[in-house]
Specification:
Elements lengths: L2 H23 L4 H19 L4 H14 L5 H7 L2 H20 L1 H10 L6 H18 L2 H19 L4 H14 L8 H10 L3 H26 L1 H14 L4 H4 L6 H19 L1 H7 L6 H17 L4 H8 L2 H20 L1 H13 L3 H16 L4 H15 L8 H13 L8 H14 L5 H26 L1
Helix pairs in contact: 1-2, 2-3, 2-18, 3-18, 4-18, 5-10, 5-14, 5-16, 7-8, 7-9, 7-11, 8-9, 8-23, 9-11, 9-23, 10-21, 10-22, 11-24, 14-16, 18-21, 19-21, 20-21, 20-22, 20-24, 21-22, 22-24
């Protein structure tokens, strides 16, 4: 074992022990302290040993069960199977969209813009990145948008790096606009009882405003590369770009794929009304519709049904989410989050706006160094505990959402979309973006957008 790995293991061990003793020192019992210690070790382990995060999650759950900190029935209950099944359904649907050429078709529509200029391209690129993230998810969006950027920049013989950065930042902002944009959106909706309509009326307007603000900042920060692209567009023209696009599969399959996707979005948008009409539990239709759509897809494409489940569904990540949610639920089960919530309420002086501020900026800063799903999973039980102190406001959930999404822009490891896009850039062009170069841009965008989110939440809470 190398000295570097040994040091990481030492940090992990010390963190777990320190969190355990600190929990006891503030009045927690043994089971509460152990649940905090295990969860803290999982978070730190994810940061230090990303490739081993699932193994660490397995070991953590095993320890909690063996010590009777939580029982098997509640592990299953806290695993949030409704969220996992929703994600499975959406992943199958996205697999279909890839196959029938939906993304190539969409790119083809956008790129046919007449009288293309560099500024117009940046606006379209950012809007498309954000809206696509809203409709599918940030990772799928960034994969296709990165491919588009690399294609366009190759044609015009300009450096792709500035446009990849713009694309990623816009994607992360866009992922906050709907319940579909980011796994934390469906997690917050499921645990907070929020609907698709709530996201459209509360999250989407702020997302769109922050996106427009971000685009205007891009015109200043990337003034030189935008000017260079403008010259290249005038020199090369743009119609031949269409030749380079991936050919779209048979039109009939594309229409059917678009039909299934459109119907899915339609019923997701109306889920709250249908639940009221049929007297169903909140978010039942929201969580079921992707499963129905995935079922139809697997009937239609029955020869590829097994492939959709095995290859399109990211089981590694979903298993990690399940165990992470179970450990976060254990914090609530043992009462550890009630103790933490009590201290936060005392610190805030029973002022909900101070609590909203703390949640927003803590999740923003935390999401810049941790996967935002990990961070949000940790805070959800605490937010639920606030209700026992008389704080009943949805602003806490929006603070988690905006902090988790906007904070991911601050560093190059703050979001899965960042990592995926930078990986593609390095693989295709051999270009590595330095940490501080990203930080110089991401910090500006992350802080400014979070600041506007804070003002929005303070005014509306």
């Amino acid at each position: 074992m190398s000295n570097k790995i040994f040091l990481k293991f030492l940090i992990l061990f010390i963190t777990a022990i320190a969190c355990g003793f600190l929990s006891i020192s503030i009045g927690m019992n043994t089971h509460q302290a152990l649940s905090v210690s295990i969860f803290s070790a999982s978070v730190m382990g994810t940061l230090l040993f990303w490739d081993f995060r699932l193994a660490i999650a397995f070991l953590g759950i095993a320890i909690l069960l063996m010590t009777r900190t939580v029982d098997l029935e509640n592990v299953i209950k806290f695993a949030s199977l409704e969220v996992i099944l929703f994600l499975v359904g959406m992943m199958v649907l996205i697999g279909l969209l890839k196959e029938v050429g939906f993304f190539a078709w969409l790119i083809g529509l956008i790129i046919r813009i007449k009288k293309l200029t560099a500024k117009k391209f940046v606006v379209v690129l950012c809007l498309m990145s954000a809206i696509l993230a809203c409709a599918v998810d940030e990772v799928t969006s960034i994969i296709f948008m990165s491919a588009l950027v690399l294609e366009i920049c190759d044609y015009f013989e300009v450096l792709a790096t500035p446009y990849i950065i713009m694309c990623v930042l816009a994607t992360n902002i866009g992922s906050s606009g709907t319940v579909l944009g980011n796994p934390i959106g469906i997690l917050i909706a499921a645990k907070g009882g929020l609907t698709f309509e709530d996201f459209i009326f509360r999250a989407f307007p702020l997302m769109f405003f922050c996106l427009l603000l971000t685009i205007s900042i891009f015109f200043v920060i990337f003034k030189k590369p935008i000017k260079e692209l403008d010259k290249k567009i005038k020199e090369f023209g743009y119609n031949e770009i269409l030749i380079k696009l991936i050919s779209v599969p048979p039109e009939k399959q594309l229409r059917l794929g678009l039909g299934i996707f459109g119907v899915t979005l339609f019923f997701i948008g109306l889920h709250h009304r249908l639940e009221l009409l049929w007297n169903l539990e909140t978010n039942t239709i929201l969580l079921v519709i992707p499963l129905i759509s995935a079922g139809f897809v697997m009937v239609w494409k029955h020869r590829k049904a097994k492939e959709y489940i095995e290859k399109e569904v990211d089981w590694w990540t979903l298993l990690f989410f399940m165990l992470l949610f179970a450990k976060a639920g254990t914090l609530k089960y043992t009462g550890a989050t009630d103790v933490l919530a009590k201290y936060l309420v005392q610190f805030a002086g029973k002022n909900p706006k101070v609590l909203v501020t703390n949640l927003l900026w803590t999740s923003c800063i935390g999401s810049s160094i941790l996967d935002n799903v990990v961070l949000v999973a940790a805070f959800i039980p605490i937010v639920q505990s606030f209700h026992s102190f008389g704080f009943v406001t949805n602003s806490f959930w929006w603070a988690l959402l905006f902090g988790g999404c906007f904070g991911g822009n601050i560093t190059m490891i703050g979001s899965t979309a960042n990592i995926v896009a930078l990986g593609l850039l390095e693989k295709e062009k051999g270009i590595k973006i330095k940490f501080f170069r990203w930080l110089g841009i991401g910090l500006i965008i992350g802080v400014i957008t979070t600041l506007f989110a804070w003002l929005y939440l303070i005014i509306t809470s």
